Amino acid sequence: MFRKVKNLLFLSLTMSVSAFAQQVLPETKHKTIVIAHRGNHVAVPENTIAAAKEAIKAGADYVEVDLRTTKDGHLVVLHDATVDRTTNGAGKINAMTLEEVRNLQVFNRNKKTHEIPEFRDVLAVCKNKINIYLDFKAADVTETWKQIKEAGMEKQVVVYLNKETDYYEWTKVAPQVPLMSSLPKDIDSKEKLVGFLEKMHLKIVDNLSNPTLLKDANELGVQVWLDVQSATEGPVSWKEAIAKDVQGLQTDQPAALIKYLKESGLH
């Protein structure tokens, strides 16, 4: 009996390591990864095709986009659950058809007309030009992975998980996709970190500020990315974040951050 239990534990550990090994992060050219938060929306609206193109133009490594679903099952890119803040309409995105969504105009600063884009259109714009940090808000995993494959973007996407149930769906449907999430607040030791990562095989965790745990995560093969976007972000906050030895920075100012990194010899 003891041998049987021991063999089962070994098998479980082997499967755990195998599942983690399948996840390979997209290729990047830079030591410090720059993620354009909701695209580069300094001069154009967030989460639009224009914002994705501006992120590419700025030289960001990733464009972060938020994924939601319309009433009739279409995948669209939008941060909020409603269209109230960012468009000339009102209501929940999951209560609208794609046709209704297409009739909305996204608020703009450059006097051009922008729309809430379909996910497939964002994928097409980004292919072979920039990686995607997919904030998986509310969508079907199977349909999402289908569109990623159809676009030939299988090796250019990292998925951010907001719910534990989404983890199990992604590992079932697409075990090779690198996953990212936040750590629970009670993770305060290496032992707890190891226990958590054995349960959820993540390649990246975000906003881990504890220097000891950050080092532990890196030793376990897990990258740490920080959110530096804020109304006051700039050289002071960037320097402070970089000093923590993280691998990625998510920013509202990708062009300015990249310029700062270059001037600091870090890009």
Order of helix and strand elements from N to C terminus: HEHEEHHEHEHEHEHEHEH
Number of helices: 10
The CATH homologous superfamily of the largest domain = Phosphatidylinositol (PI) phosphodiesterase
Gap from first CA to last CA = 56 Å
Inertia-based shape: globular
Largest sheet: 8 strands, parallel, barrel
Q: Enter the CATH topology name of the largest domain.
A: TIM Barrel
Estimate percent helicity.
Answer: 25-40%
CATH structural architecture of the largest domain: Alpha-Beta Barrel
**Number of DSSP strands?**
9
Q: Major sheet: order of its strands?
A: 1-2-4-5-6-7-8-9
How many domain modules?
Answer: 2
Mean pLDDT figure: 92
Low-confidence stretches: 1-17
Question: Structural class, from secondary structure content?
Answer: alpha/beta
Could you characterize what this model shows?
It is built from ten helices and nine strands. The chain is an alpha/beta fold and 267 residues long. It folds into two domains: 37-55 and 64-156 and 164-174, TIM Barrel (Alpha-Beta Barrel), CATH 3.20.20.190; 182-267, Rossmann fold, CATH 3.40.50. It has an eight-stranded parallel beta barrel, surrounded by six helices.
